[in-house]
Amino acid sequence: MSGWYAMPQTKILYRLQIFFVAALVMISCQHDVSVQQRPLIGANKLMQISPVELDLQEILEKKKLTALTLNSSTSYFVYRGQAMGYEYELLKRFTRSIGVELEIKIIPDVNAMFDLLNKGEGDIIACNLAITQDRRKMASFSEPYNFTRQVLVQRMPDGRDTMTNREINENLVTSPIELIGKKVYVNKSSSFFSRLENLQNEIGGDIDIVSVPGYIDTEKLIKKVANGDIDYTVADDNIAKLNATYYPNIDISVQLSFPQQIAWATRKNSPNLLRAINDWFEEDRRKSVHAYIYNKYFKASKEQWDKFNSEYSSLKGNRISDYDDYLKEYSKIIGWDWRLLAAQMYQESKFKADARSWAGAFGLMQFMPETAKMYDIDSMSPPEEQIRAAILYISWLDDFWKERIYDPDERIKFILASYNVGLGHVIDATNLAVYLGYSPAKWENNVAECILLKSDRKYYQSELVKHGYCRGEEPYTYVKKILYQYDHYKKVIS
Questions:
Q1: Which of 209, 325, 416, 429 sits between 20 and 30 A of 479, alpha carbons compared?
Q2: Rounded to the nearest 5 degrees, what angle is found at the Cα of 269, between the Cα atoms of 263 and 273?
Q3: Residues 116 and 39 in one domain
Q4: pLDDT band at 300 (very low <50, low <70, confident <90, very high)
Q5: Same domain, yes or no, for 476 and 338?
Q6: pLDDT in tens, 67-83
Q7: What is the mean predicted confidence (pLDDT) over 95-117?
Q8: Which helix (H) or strand (E) holds 276?
Q9: How far is 158 from 447, CA to CA, in rounded Å?
Q10: 382-404 core/surface letters (b: 16 or more CB in 10 A; e: else)
């Protein structure tokens, strides 16, 4: 074979990096809620870290914006393989408007987000974040895009269907002053803790504030109230109203604060990014799709409720598709993470066994009829056989590329591209890479750029190209989308 593959190569030696994973020790207590009773005043205050110099221009140059958020029903979650969430959909629209990719980082503790923001490990905090004076010391805030109040979440009395309104109210807290001496559980990294501290002064008595760790979010606490594990928590009213549609036995009528502003946070020294966000919000909120996205998550229908509570939601379960068990079993043959195969299947068919393409590809992994014959399957073959055949085909591609691409992570990209467009076209792209001075063993910014050239007559008619024209944008985008989807799965699916 002519070209790069005819040349001898020296294998690259890789250092084995050993990672030590520290065990996270959680302190347990009654009702499965870890608590810290009445921490010292100021214990939940934010530490100040000097922000790195990183503004909009640097974000545009690296072509990526990193958002820090929560895995929650309104911020970000994955349902049946698809990333969703109110904040996520707004972030996607914003990053699309400035021409960069969106990277999501899930940070369980809101206070930790501010440290990571100022260290440059994120560019935006977007998680239904209320503006407070303490937070203003650490970050700048966009113009508010929502307003909310803090409300008490409590459980309605049993047998309320046969009670009068007066009898129901006698079993409920109806005024903040009635919280004196009662246990109220709140997230230690939320704005609710400081609000309860201030409320004690306003009502002239002590509330038994129970601070839970940052990884126990508001929605988990609301569920504990509904289940009878704890009696009281505090939530923003938009989140409380959403959860009240799921848990009809909770009461959220008692307001504990004046209206609060919800906004995105940026570093204080990122004025251009902040201006871009504000300009975008001002324009986008005029569009009907903006209101549609809000209603989709905060005025949830039964369909949304079913999504949130499905075993296929990262909020409640740990499944991606109906085919996870097959993916886990057969992924061992090629040594891939099963979630990567799930991302590929999502890209191929959206997990629809009867999917068909205009070109005749069929099934979960979109086999072309000619390739399917090699593995003795057709459109009527059961899902397990289709998945096994895809694994065998990937294994064959891996055998070819492992002699040429020694980095296993890099090799995955070549395999995915070959699966999508055919091995011959990717070989052509690597030969073009050698000719044009790119690395033939690296995909991004190298061979990926050369696969795009295969739709240019100047290149696809070159003697270096043996397999003719191809629409290079397809494998180029295919690899990007799968790896992007895989990154989502790694964040929330174990």
A1: 325
A2: 55
A3: yes
A4: low
A5: yes
A6: 999 988 889 999 888 89
A7: 94
A8: helix 271-284
A9: 66
A10: ebebbbbbbbebbeebbebbeee
In sequence order, what DSSP letters do the residues of 29-44 get, joined into one string? -GGG---EESPPTTTT
pTM for the model stands at: 0.74
Which of 11, 14, 13, 16 minimizes the C-alpha distance to 404? 11
Distances (CA, A) of 240 to 154, 221, 256, 461: 11, 11, 13, 63
Instruction: Report the pLDDT value the prediction gives residue 25, as an integer from 0 to 100.
Output: 30
Q: What is the pLDDT of residue 7?
A: 38
* CATH number of the domain within which 180 lies: 3.40.190.10
- Whether residues 347 and 485 share a domain: the answer is yes
**Residue 170 falls in the annotated catalytic set:** no
- In this structure, is residue 371 part of a structural domain? yes
Q: Is the dihedral of CA 454, 458, 459, 460 positive or negative?
A: positive
Q: Of 254-268, 291-305, 467-481, which range is least confident?
A: 291-305
User: Is 10 inside any structural domain?
Assistant: no
What's the domain count of the chain?
A: 3
Domain housing 191: 148-261
Q: Which residue type is seen at 1?
A: M
- At 420, is the pLDDT very low, low, confident or very high (cuts 50, 70, 90)? very high
